[in-house]
Amino acid sequence: MSDMMAFGRKILSEQPFSVALGAELTVFEESKAELTLALREDHLQQNGFAHGGVVSYLADNALTFAGGSVLGPVLTLEMKINYVRPATGDRLVARAEVLSAGRTQAVCQCKVFAVSKDSEKLCAVAQGTVMIASR
Amino acid sequence: MSDMMAFGRKILSEQPFSVALGAELTVFEESKAELTLALREDHLQQNGFAHGGVVSYLADNALTFAGGSVLGPVLTLEMKINYVRPATGDRLVARAEVLSAGRTQAVCQCKVFAVSKDSEKLCAVAQGTVMIASR
Amino acid sequence: MSDMMAFGRKILSEQPFSVALGAELTVFEESKAELTLALREDHLQQNGFAHGGVVSYLADNALTFAGGSVLGPVLTLEMKINYVRPATGDRLVARAEVLSAGRTQAVCQCKVFAVSKDSEKLCAVAQGTVMIASR
Amino acid sequence: MSDMMAFGRKILSEQPFSVALGAELTVFEESKAELTLALREDHLQQNGFAHGGVVSYLADNALTFAGGSVLGPVLTLEMKINYVRPATGDRLVARAEVLSAGRTQAVCQCKVFAVSKDSEKLCAVAQGTVMIASR
User: How many CA atoms lie within 13 A of D112 on its CB side?
Assistant: First the structure.
């Protein structure tokens, strides 16, 4: 495991909400981050799909890690998410990348995929801004 | 309790994710919904504030309930959220209202407040679209 | 006319795009701004409604003026707009207000109305962030 | 010129606002659209950059053409745009693509570039939803 990945996992392990949900950091490189969440009963909505709040949590956190990979400790200022397909399957995978980074802010994009044994389907797309934490 | 509130609470109680987080439906009227979340350790981020994912869950769900109050069962198509202040305090209260409703879609707004014994501060603002579920 | 309004109109008159479109600043107070646009043929789309780009220009600029009313010279960092009804009528009126302002950024909301002799209908809702220009 | 491009250019030529601004459709294929705007004095803001409203017009219209390339006549329901760099140069080029399309709606992304003789810089990123027009 790279030092960067070890550092990212340490940060994630210090987020009680991420630990409670069971999110894992599966990619963490310059300008990129991927979070994976094995779906559990308590992530669902009344219709059996993952709750939109679970999907938006993943997107938000992946955007923050992607932005943080180039800016250091950051906060998410804002995010927009489009839910394009029910989030169902074995796990959700959120892949975020930096689209543009300045000195204090970065604009990132994230795609969330619903993954099963033999398929991977886009279920949400997000775009947002992160800012260095010492604002 | 009104029939409508009883119905709304039943729906919320059927969302495993909402139950796991501990969200309560505290207002549910035509065009309006309010969700309240007593903050717990497992809602937090590494900095002690509520995780952005908790705030966006609340906003997303409150938007959906508000839209659902006029359209019946709905899905959230998309949402945009601005985090304007750290979400800290005893509880978070998300107040959503319908800004415009058509036959199949509604555009709603939500403000999330961080509430303590003697203060109530705006911590996030969201805007989004819900659509009737039978799309 | 207040000094503030005179100042705002001077700024608007220095924006060649705003002058070309014919936008007028009709309210400019602390935390608030209103832009009015008398609709012309060259603002339209192929269907006879005002082009979405005209509506988003108005929302964007009204957000910027509202934010600027409390922060001084600002840039719009990002904006989200929902078009809720065709923009048609005699004129469009964009009313923006500050929802939350920090030291360097403000989050603002804007509602755009389509106005005719005897009606005023909400046609778009926007939310966005402005930042002081010296970033 | 392909039939599709000829059709797209005809649509654009029927939008008085697009004609007034001088936008050209430079790519129009299944799932993709590109609009190009040679910058003129009347597109600018007081600071000499293209007005945010010009950039958002381009993004909005490119999203609509991209979505329309797979769905037929569409309206833009909503859009979110992040301005990441001043829009300056000889021309702006907005490149949009469909990220996900259903039967009646599509979610599209657009990047707007500021282009000069020897550079092309990302100046805005947008994400939005289009819907078939017969709603």
Answer: 33
Q: Which of D11, D14, D46, D75 is the best substitution to test chain C (most C C-beta atoms within 10 A)?
A: D46
D96 contact residues in A (CB cutoff 8 A): none
| B78 → closest Cβ in D104, D129, D135 | D129
Number of domains forming the structure of chain A: 1
- Output the domain CATH number for residue C69: 3.10.129.10
Question: How far apart (Å, rounded) are the C-alpha atoms in residues B40 and A11?
Answer: 19
- Contacts for D74 with CB less than 8 Å, ≥ 6 apart: D64, D67, D68, D106, D130, D131, D132, D133
CA-wise closest residue to D94 among D65, D71, D51: D65
Q: How far apart are CA D109 and CA D85, in angstroms?
A: 18
Nearest chain A CA: its distance from C135 CA (Å): 9
Residue B19 lies in domain: 3-132
Please report residues of C whose CB lies closer than 8 A to that of B107. Answer: 82, 84, 125
The answer to whether D92 and D119 have CB atoms below 8 angstroms apart is no
Least CB-CB distance to D17: which of C45, C61, C80?
A: C45
Mutation for testing the A interface, residue in C77, C80, C107, C125 having most A CBs under 10 Å = C77
Helix (H), strand (E) at residue D3: helix D3-13
Residue C46: its pLDDT value, please? 83
The span from the CA of B5 to the CA of B20, in Å, is 20
Q: Which helix (H) or strand (E) holds C5?
A: helix C3-13
Cα angle value B57/B58/B61 (rounded, 5°): 80
pTM of the model: 0.96
Q: Which chains touch A (3 or more CB pairs under 8 A)?
A: B, C, D
pLDDT digits (tens, 9 = 90+) for D34-83: 999 999 999 998 888 999 999 999 999 999 999 999 999 999 999 999 99
Mean pLDDT over residues B59-86, rounded?
A: 97
Contact B103, B84 (CB under 8 A): no
Q: What is the ipTM of this complex?
A: 0.95
